[in-house]
Amino acid sequence: xxxxxxxxxxxxxxxxxxxxxxxxxxxxxxxxxxxxxxxxxxxxxxxxxxxxxxxxxxxxxxxxxxxxxxxxxxxxxxxxxxxxxxxxxxxxxxxxxxxxxxxxxxxxxxxxxxxxxxxxxxxxxxxxxxxxxxxxxxxxxxxxxxxxxxxxxxxxxxxxxxxxxxxxxxxxxxxxxxxxxxxxxxxxxxxxxxxxxxxxxxxxxxxxxxxxxxxxxxxxxxxxxxxxxxxxxxxxxxxxxxxxxxxxxxxxxxxxxxxxxxxxxxxxxxxxxxxxxxxxxxxxxxxxxxxxxxxxxxxxxxxxxxxxxxxxxxxxxxxxxxxxxxxxxxxxxxxxxxxxxxxxxxxxxxxxxxxxxxxxxxxxxxxxxxxxxxxxxxxxxxxxxxxxxxxxxxxxxxxxxxxxxxxxxxxxxxxxxxxxxxxxxxxxxxxxxxxxxxxxxxxxxxxxxxxxxxxxxxxxxxxxxxxxxxxxxxxxxxxxxxxxxxxxxxxxxxxxxxxxxxxxxxxxxxxxxxxxxxxxxxxxxxxxxxxxxxx
Length: 535
Description:
Layout: H1 5-19, E1 23-30, E2 35-40, E3 44-48, E4 55-59, E5 69-80, E6 86-93, E7 101-106, E8 113-118, E9 123-127, H2 159-166, H3 171-181, H4 190-194, H5 199-211, E10 218-222, E11 225-229, E12 238-240, H6 244-257, H7 264-290, H8 294-306, E13 317-321, E14 327-331, H9 338-381, H10 387-395, E15 412-416, E16 422-426, H11 429-438, E17 445-449, E18 457-459, H12 469-481, E19 491-497, E20 501-502, E21 513-514, E22 518-522, H13 528-531
Antiparallel strand pairs: 1-2, 1-5, 2-3, 3-4, 5-6, 6-7, 7-8, 8-9, 10-11, 10-12, 13-14, 15-16, 16-18, 17-18, 17-19, 19-22, 20-21
């Protein structure tokens, strides 16, 4: 599916005719499936932005998911951004004093996204996918992804400007000129505009496209697959459909049937696995590159020990004669004695060396798994996956962790250390605050991986003395396992008493300020959770 400004406007017109004034109930963002579902009382709008699709389907009413966000509002209207592949669904709340929400659909190929924004300033509340190519932060006003500078803006044309632009140009040059300078042109319709016998006829065709006149929905048969479009285009086989939304439902149904018996579920699962493995490989390779500093750290430690008589306690910098006779300036921790600083360097070097020994094997295993997933994706696209290979893939998808009404989930998972102490691990950023401030005691031990996003961990401990080293290390390993540094060879984990952790005002979920922090260094161990009986 490819979107252009004309298709965006035509679909928005169909949705407006079908839903304007309709009462909405809830909206669901499914990040893993790349879907957004808006539940109305009398209809359901499914926006499927998964790879290979990019369709909007209007269906019968359905019940919202358990994790759906309430949306007590009426669809007040829709609009599109001029000459852009952006659609805005404006809602008007029927109760409460919160700002009126807007669902923004960005439909540019390879940059599909759905964003929920609030108020006339369209301040971003939630996005289906993060955007790194432009600012798109929660709480900030939304800006169109295709905002052009005046020098690059595309304009509407009059007959004289059209002729002056294209006269004397070859087909390739005329195509580039239209796409760069004329509004409402796209890769879908530019061939139709240039296929006219004269420049005047081409201009008349463009006027009909720009004014959206005589819309006649068809499904174009293109090499990239079926393509709904507001008109049939010359040079392309097409068949009429009742509406563009009906055509998109047909495209989505055909995509489900295409390939393996698992259809779109397998496609989305394999795409997610490929992205996960690529992220893992990036982390592992970065960590492996850092291990090259081990020899330098050992040299620095040895140099400090050999020059203890030249280092003043509490100094931050020390210039020492190197082993090659050249002076070297080392950064020191003024809180440590020189011997302690040297020992810390040796420990860091040892951890890096252990990582250098283990990381190549982990990288090789991840590369082999990525190659297997990529092969499955290729065979799935060609329809060559037999049922006996599809079923294990569907069964390997992670089970839902949604709480049941009979047994509501706690904001943490519970483990038992080898010393018999309970270790509680937060289930995510939204639950970290609940664990730290509502499911722990002031004297408990609080842990978190340093400089990495991850779970808060609570080691249940009420005595005034330091907790047993083994139990503390196991709690730290669980903190490392449930953090963004899980692929590192060594992870620093900060710990302190829970009573020394406070929540700043207006801080984001999970953001805290710990005091009187101490640090332990541990190596992540994915099997520890099973050994400690996590629940």
